[in-house]
Inverse folding.
């Protein structure tokens, strides 16, 4: 049977079942490749038996502890312990590919991802035209004209989405499609950003960042991009609306919502400025996207570019996983904190998010006489929790604590609170990139490159099993573009002690659910405060791990260090990602350590208005291995070869 016919039959079956059950059912599907569809099916050894609020308990220690009552108590759920076994890792992989925590409602019904320029029909058509070949960058035909700034995408024009489709699959990696009582929705999973299709083989690389995912453009082409306005620099006050479209504020005053069309146009420009392979996860009212990181995460703590995900289960990795679904994929949950975070009345904030909602049931109309919060409550699929996604609510909500932005833990009914996030952490910590092939000549060059790495002083920060010393470097020292380093500074105004629920707490949690404090003091507290830009600091960026650099170009947090195969012409984000050209890992790494090449990259970024809007510079990290520093071209090439060879943890792994 030919591939197009198989897809047609699968699609017909999907639609047929939908018609058969009509408005009575809800069902969904997200792809998850088997081992044969992976380029990196190998895993690191499962050495950790328990995680206890970030402390790794290896298997021999766990055996000793389990022999005494005191030891067993130390590994109990009410101490924050998570038992790591094959079942947890299996659930983690499934969640990585299939769990949305309900974000399909925000993305489809509020943001209108399926109601803008890219429709389900056109996406299905693009998939069919692949004929099973797969692609790392699905090109989808525009269904209608959409203007973004001075660029109009015409009906019929092909849009490079960066969506990945494995060879032999008719489905997009990281997209879960829902049929819900007559409505089609799409939700996103971690695999959308943290798994990628290898262009040569068509296989999936688990844990590799999707370096050409055009997330900002996809949002710009949605019908209600202004639902994400707090992640950009578009200012509602700059687009005053009709006084007849006013909302009653919390203190009983009347305030006009921003002009819908003008503000939507401004919001589209901001998100469309993101480079491919980047995402703006900070709700700080500044456009400052960061590169999507890899999920080769073992011993790579703290997590996020600023290092703000650094405490709690799995040394902050669960906090990072949680942030995606408890903050970034549902902006309605920020309503109660809007005054602190954005200087906006909660009703004005939510009215701005909902006035252009794609689904009528969630669209706020001032003429209705209802408050925006009443509209949300009436349509909320998760009553009893703020926002639209599925959350367990800590007593500190809506205050920030250093484990969460907002006191919310994305969770799945029927399993313990935060279980899926912890399971994904256990799974991610076993991932490693595809093995780098080598021969005698290559091995000798890599050895020489390691010597250059040490002579250049790189090992001073890039040490340990994952080649990071697990520290946050102050922005004054690292010198990179500073906007993202202080993105969480406003959260200090409403800060609670960090805690989580006991790890066996059922979801939804009972009223008397136990919470577990997360110890934080001394040097650890100072590092966390630096990562969040608190306690009078200006923030900083973490020392990233170096495992899998061959899969994660471009480099630095802003994607600014990007060079194509032609190092004379393909410079910076304008000469690579914005031109549809993939950055070359070797040339981009050379730009990281060669001040002449870096200078040309920085100049290329500075010449682009789009890059300036997204605060992409490629500046900072001024640590050189070039002629001025006494390194020959051969030394430099060997150092780059060494960096590209790191495909697994170095040994030995430290024992707690």
């Amino acid at each position: 049977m030919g591939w197009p016919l198989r897809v047609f039959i699968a699609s017909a079956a999907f639609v047929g079942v939908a018609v058969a059950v009509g408005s009575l059912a809800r069902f969904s599907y997200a792809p998850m490749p088997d081992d044969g569809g992976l380029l990196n099916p190998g895993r690191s050894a499962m050495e950790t038996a328990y995680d206890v609020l970030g402390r790794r308990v290896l298997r021999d220690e766990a055996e000793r502890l389990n022999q005494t009552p005191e030891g067993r108590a130390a590994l109990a759920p009410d101490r924050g312990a998570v038992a790591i076994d094959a079942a947890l890792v299996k659930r983690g992989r499934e969640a990585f590919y299939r769990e949305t925590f309900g974000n399909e409602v925000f993305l489809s019904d509020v943001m209108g991802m399926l109601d803008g320029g890219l429709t389900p029909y056109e996406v299905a058509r693009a998939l069919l035209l692949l004929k099973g070949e797969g692609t790392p960058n699905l090109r989808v035909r525009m269904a209608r004209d959409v203007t973004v700034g001075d660029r109009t995408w015409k009906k019929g024009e092909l849009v490079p989405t960066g969506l990945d489709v494995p060879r032999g699959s008719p489905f997009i990696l990281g997209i879960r499609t829902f049929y819900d009582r007559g409505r089609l929705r799409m939700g996103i999973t971690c695999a959308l950003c943290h798994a990628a299709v290898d262009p040569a083989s068509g296989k999936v690389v688990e844990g590799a960042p999707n370096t050409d995912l055009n997330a900002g453009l996809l949002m710009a082409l949605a019908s209600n991009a202004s639902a994400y306005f707090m992640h950009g620099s578009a200012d509602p006050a700059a687009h005053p609306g009709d006084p007849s479209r006013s909302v009653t504020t919390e203190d009983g005053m009347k305030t006009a919502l921003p002009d819908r069309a003008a503000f939507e146009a401004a919001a589209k420009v901001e998100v469309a400025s993101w480079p491919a392979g980047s995402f703006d996860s900070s709700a700080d009212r500044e456009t400052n996207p960061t590169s999507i990181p890899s999920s080769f995460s073992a011993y790579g703590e703290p997590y996020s570019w600023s290092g703000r995900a650094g405490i709690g289960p799995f040394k902050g990795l669960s906090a990072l996983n949680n942030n995606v679904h408890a903050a970034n994929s549902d902006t309605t949950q920020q309503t109660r904190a809007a005054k602190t975070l954005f200087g906006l009345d909660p009703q004005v904030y939510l009215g701005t998010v909902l006035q252009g909602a794609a689904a009528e049931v969630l669209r706020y109309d001032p003429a209705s006489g209802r408050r925006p919060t009443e509209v949300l409550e009436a349509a909320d699929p998760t009553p009893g929790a703020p926002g639209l996604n599925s959350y367990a609510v800590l007593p500190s909500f809506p205050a920030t604590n250093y484990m969460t932005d907002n006191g919310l833990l994305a969770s799945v009914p029927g399993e313990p609170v935060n279980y899926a996030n912890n399971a994904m952490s256990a799974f991610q910590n076993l991932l490693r990139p595809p093995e780098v092939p080598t021969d005698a000549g290559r091995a000798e060059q890599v050895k020489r490159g390691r010597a250059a790495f040490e002579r250049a002083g790189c090992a001073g920060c890039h040490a340990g099993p994952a080649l990071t010393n697990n520290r946050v470097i102050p922005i004054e020292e690292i010198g990179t573009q500073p906007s993202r380093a202080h993105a969480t500074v406003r959260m200090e105004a409403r800060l609670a002690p960090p805690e989580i629920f006991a790890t066996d707490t059922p979801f939804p949690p009972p009223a008397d659910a136990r919470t577990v404090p997360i110890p934080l003091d001394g040097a650890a507290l100072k590092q966390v405060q630096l990562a969040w830009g608190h306690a009078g600091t200006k923030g900083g960026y973490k020392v990233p791990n170096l495992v899998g650099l061959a899969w994660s170009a471009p480099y630095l947090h802003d994607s600014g260090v990007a060079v194509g195969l032609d190092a004379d012409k393909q410079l910076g984000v304008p000469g690579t990602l914005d031109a549809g050209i993939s950055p070359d890992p070797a040339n981009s790494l050379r730009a990281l350590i060669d001040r002449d090449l870096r200078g040309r990259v920085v100049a290329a970024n500075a010449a682009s208005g789009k890059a300036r809007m997204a605060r992409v510079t490629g500046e900072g990290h001024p640590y050189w291995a070039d002629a001025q520093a006494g390194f020959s071209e051969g030394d430099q090439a060997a150092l780059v070869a060494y960096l590209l060879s790191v495909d697994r943890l170095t040994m030995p792994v430290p024992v707690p």
User: Anything to note?
Assistant: The radius of gyration is 24 Å.
